[in-house]
Amino acid sequence: MQIVAINKKARDYEIIETYEAGIELKGTEVKSLREKNVSFKDSFCRAKDGEIYLLNLHISPYKFANRFNHDPERPRKLLLHKREIKRLIGKLTSTGLTIIPTKIYFNQNGIAKVEIALAKGRKQYDKREEIKKQEMDKKIKMYLKHGGR
Length: 149
Fold this sequence. Notes:
Layout: E1 2-6, E2 13-23, H1 27-34, E3 38-39, E4 44-48, E5 51-55, E6 58-59, E7 76-79, H2 82-94, E8 98-106, E9 112-121, H3 124-145
């Protein structure tokens, strides 16, 4: 598995479930992904007409393409099973959840995949608690690494 990009903003959410989805791409988008020219800034997923689309994902234009290049921020359809789509749409409508992309990667067969997560936004105090927990874990690791010095 070759990871192309990881969404660092996903840490601001409490991740409930993750799904692996295919993504509908054009040829120049795949070439640009292989060069790791992608940005997750403010990207999210939205359900429309029984399908799930990935919005605001910026894939830079491929520099060696000419007039056949793609629009960098076009909506991209996610390829999921029908039962997964129905389940996600049901959870989105019933509670205050959202779908965010967490990472893009190429699997063993060379196919581009997106890991999406059903997530809930954290409050400010939850974020502070998470940072404190990470700092304590870091200190404990350093302490154990240096043998209690």
